[in-house]
Amino acid sequence: MLHPSRLLPLLFVxxxxxxxxxxxxxxxxxxxxxxxxxxxxxxxxxxxxLVLATRAPWPADPRQIMHIGVSGLLVHALYLGGVFMAIKHxxxxxxxxxxxxxxPLLTACGAGFLLGxxxxxxxWLGLVLGFVGVALVVANKLGHVPLxxxxxxxxxxxxxxxxxxxxxxxxxxxxxxxxGSLIQxxxxxxxTALAAWAxxxxxxxxxxQFAFALLWxxxxxxxxxxxxxxxxxxxxxxxNVASLFYLTPPxxxxxxxxxxxxxxxxxxxxxxxxxxxxxxxxxxxxx
Length: 287
Known about the structure:
By secondary structure, the chain is mostly helical. Helix content is 79%, strand content 0%. It has helices at 4-26, 32-54, 62-88, 93-100, 103-115, 121-138, 147-171, 177-199, 208-235, 238-243, 248-260, 266-284. The protein starts with a helix and ends with a helix.
């Protein structure tokens, strides 16, 4: 029987993958930053209640509060904002997944310089194999689209999640998940509110589908997946954690097949096997 700690990465991948499904369900009814702002505000409200009810401890060092806030801006504001804007403005989800899917390779490059982590040849092999697998999964979704302008938000998302993972591992790997979430989401909500006010109408069409998508992203993603990500960053190497993001596009493709009846080609299935194999190599390599 698998130890519960070994199931956490798999649970994280599944929950994180459903975020793309939630975005697809909710984005027809709200602009991307407005959608995210509603999500952040609801997270802050619910987390404040939880913090007060459980008397969760706050960081004693003001510098730790600053570091947690910066990590939140990178992981939430830049990453989620970039992904949502890229999809809303026409970049195919497959292309978005491929761009963000380069994150483990960038993280591996930065891990040695910023964290002093050694990336072994077997890990590099796993990371490259995983990237090729992700490319195969999304290859049939690339199509012919004007990429130049639409790629910018996806590149911002890639930069945010890469720097956020490294920054959090380096400066604030350990914090209470309840108060830490408040500290992360507060500056994220403020920045997102300013950006939405400056660039969007901030109108929301409150349909049952949008309400479901919003609640799913708040409860399952912001409470569940983000908490698991923080736990994984705390307990594992940056490269190991980043390698899990290779599993997100295959997992999302399977969920989209089940929920939206999107087809899966033989090439995509082969890519899934390669991505899983790459993650296995990266996570089991001797460091």
